[in-house]
Amino acid sequence: MKRLARTALIVIGLLLLLVLTVPLLIPVPPLPGLLPPEQVADADSEFITVNGLRLHVKRSGQGEPVMVLLHGFGSHTETWRSVQPQLSALGTVIAFDRPGFGLTERPLTWTGASPYSPAAQVDLVIGLLDQLGIQRAILIGNSAGGTISAQVALRYPDRVSALVLVDPAIYAGGGTPSLVRPLLNSPQMRHLGPLLARSQAANIANLLPTAYHDPSKATSEMLAFYQRPLKVENWDRGFYEFLAASRSPGTLSEDVKRLALPVLVVTGEFDTWVPTEQSLRLAREIPGAQLAVMPNCGHVPQEECPQDFLQAVVPFITG
User: Fold this and answer.
1) Mean pLDDT within 136-155
2) CATH topology for 36-318?
3) What digits encode the pLDDT tens for the residues 282-310?
4) Pair 226, 314: CB distance under 8 Å
5) Domain chopping of the chain, boundaries
6) Confidence of residue 175 (pLDDT cuts 50, 70, 90)
7) Strand pairing of 92-96 and 137-142?
8) What predicted TM-score, i.e. pTM, was given to this entire model?
9) Fewer CB within 10 Å: C terminus or N terminus of the chain?
């Protein structure tokens, strides 16, 4: 009996050793031809260092009000390309790539909290305002960008004058489950992380149309914009670091009831990523919030239905 138990322990130990070591032996070759973000940027791109991170920023317009645009998961500044010029006629518009996406720097080492974490991204918005000498701004956030916008308004209420929450991820989604995070942060998964990121990126062409009510509006031009950050160095490692650092919204679904500023909730009538019912609920639960439902539109109305989006947002901002 003792011999059997000893054999079982040896087998279990060998299996555990295999589980711990084999993933570290899988080769993760570097991707060829990746470039610094500056070499992929547009003529109107800026790179501004905020909280030690080089942000890719696009600014337009001038004067008050100041509007800061925050994109969603997997997106970047180009999601606003159809509405930013019109918003710029109202004041100053600042769009930037959140850490892990677009052309913003993707650090691989840091001291303290991860710069990809939600808390760091909230502080990043305030750091950007400080860097540009802006006291208060209107935050316009889509999906996970709406999540960050609401969190900024709750933590720094004196810095946010109004919110436009576009299909925001408040009640569900928007973070890696707590039970999975230790696995994502293990040495084995950190080694394999770039391969996971590359497999997800390979699916962009299939995933993008699902964000639209009319998939035909997910044009090849828009797909090219979404794929452009895949030319940037460390995009795969940065994307994995974002996944490893992400968190669920926590108590945000209750906290938003404390918002005491003008809020417009915008949702596509047929959003399947953040179900429309969640945005309707949010508009009911935020005191005094306004609601705009975009007909025949999905998760990214600023892309799919830009004129309807502007017809709802512009009066809110100017009123």
Assistant:
1) 97
2) Rossmann fold (3.40.50)
3) 999 999 999 999 999 999 999 999 999 99
4) no
5) 36-318
6) low
7) unpaired
8) 0.91
9) N
